[in-house]
Amino acid sequence: MNLRLGSFFDAATLQRGRDYARRGLVVAVEPLSGGGLRGQVSNGRGQTYQQRIVLERGIVDGTCSCPVGYNCKHVAAVLLTWAARADRQTDNAPDSTSGSPPALAAPVQGWLARVRDSARRVEAPRPRPQDYPDAIKDRLLYVLIPNEPMVRVDIFKGRVNAAGTGLNKAIRRYDALLALRSAQPAGFIRPVDLELLPALAQARLWETRYGHGLPELFRFRGAEATALIRRLCDTGRFFHDNAPDAHLAWSETSPEARLGWRMASDGSQRLGFADDTDCPLTLRGLEGATLWVDTAQGLIGALAEPVATEVLRLVAASPDVAPDQAAALAHALPDRLAGLALPRPRVPRQTRRAARRQVA
Q: For residue 227, what is the enclosing H or E element?
């Protein structure tokens, strides 16, 4: 087969076709009576696509049942497999004096081609150590999504600055699903990332934008979910914001949270959490656990006792209470909120002073 495939496929499609052919994903190839080819190609995940390729005057006109539909990587893989098979048959052609072996049926030929392809020596993947080599400057980053009552993580990509002292300011979101789809992920994806990304998706801490999800039985809860956050901290690439100085480290401190009212400079109040020393706490919910976050010190840890998710959402939705509404709200509030003591907002004292008389 003498075809210039580069004239009918772009470089990326042709490369993917070579990869499919090398991996033996071409299930079957057989010639058509009109001079074309019929093929079947697996996507490697249990689904098979059908191809019909017309070859006339050196032109490739290939249709496929995949979403692309025309001259796709599956069509290229069929052509490459058929060409390689023709080359092998030419090299192994018997002498005319010895006679020709019986022709094999198309399914047998397709299976035999897969056997031969699988027997080829495949280049061993390059070792991928946990630590970053000096030549790799990009970093995969895990960023805690701000202003949410529950723990949610987004994936970003950063780059080490020229001095090697930290990250550049340009930290952007990264489609980490590419790392999970690719047979050979990018060099800045470490082995621990290939473990953490599926775990975050399973725990639903990282939204992968897929409509279906795992059953509740498979979700990480309690100690498992907390251990996953600790592993993020251990990478040294866990941040509370997409800023180069927003690192988060794990803390073994386990305070007990209680409710309290925080007063602003204008006298308005808002319900929040505090520890035993009355220091404000920012809380994030997990399945069966509650985390506290201190962005000023770059620390994250777990509470001694978890707080119910509904309480976290109610506190996060707490409005600012104006000074003239504090007394009425204090009278209407219940004593407890899902097991936590609910204090009353402070009622400011108002003192009226007589107006001063101005004397000329």
A: helix 222-234
Which residues contact residue 49 at a Cβ distance below 8 angstroms, ignoring those fewer than 6 apart? 40, 41, 42, 43, 64, 65, 66, 74
Write down the pLDDT at residue 85.
Answer: 81
Tokens of 162: 């020229």
Give the tokens for residue 11.
């470089």
Sheet bearing 289-294, strands edge to edge: 249-250, 299-302, 289-294, 280-286, 269-274, 258-263
Burial of 206: CB neighbours in 10 Å, binned 0-12, 13-18, 19+: buried
DSSP-based three-state secondary structure for 33: coil
Q: What pLDDT is attached to residue 211?
A: 42
> Which segments of the chain have a pLDDT < 50?
96-98, 121-122, 124, 211-212
Residue 147, Ramachandran bin (φ over 0: left; ψ between -120 and 50: alpha; else beta): left
Instruction: Kindly give the residue spans of alpha helices, DSSP state H, lying in 137-217.
Output: 177-181, 191-202
